[in-house]
Design a protein that fits this description.
With 65 residues, this protein is an all-alpha fold. Helix content is 80%, strand content 0%. The longest helix is centred in the last third of the chain and has 22 residues. The termini are far apart.
Length: 65
């Protein structure tokens, strides 16, 4: 029983120390963005539009290669 507890703690520590991948960070950011209140603020909406345009340009540049 004690060794199982130690293994669980070790796994928990490993998962905490691992940094999320860039894809995971992007997924988390977009999930939070969709739930946020930026949609109610015109200035923030404009910033989101600019950022999305930059991301789309980055993707298009990558696709055209």
């Amino acid at each position: 029983m004690r060794s199982q507890y130690c293994k669980i703690k070790e796994i928990e520590q490993q998962s905490k120390s691992e940094t999320p991948s860039l894809k995971d960070k992007a997924d988390d950011t977009f999930r939070r963005l969709k739930k946020s209140l930026v949609w109610d603020d015109p200035k923030k909406q404009a910033k989101v539009e600019k950022l999305l345009a930059q991301l789309n340009a980055l993707i298009e540049d990558d696709i055209s290669k």
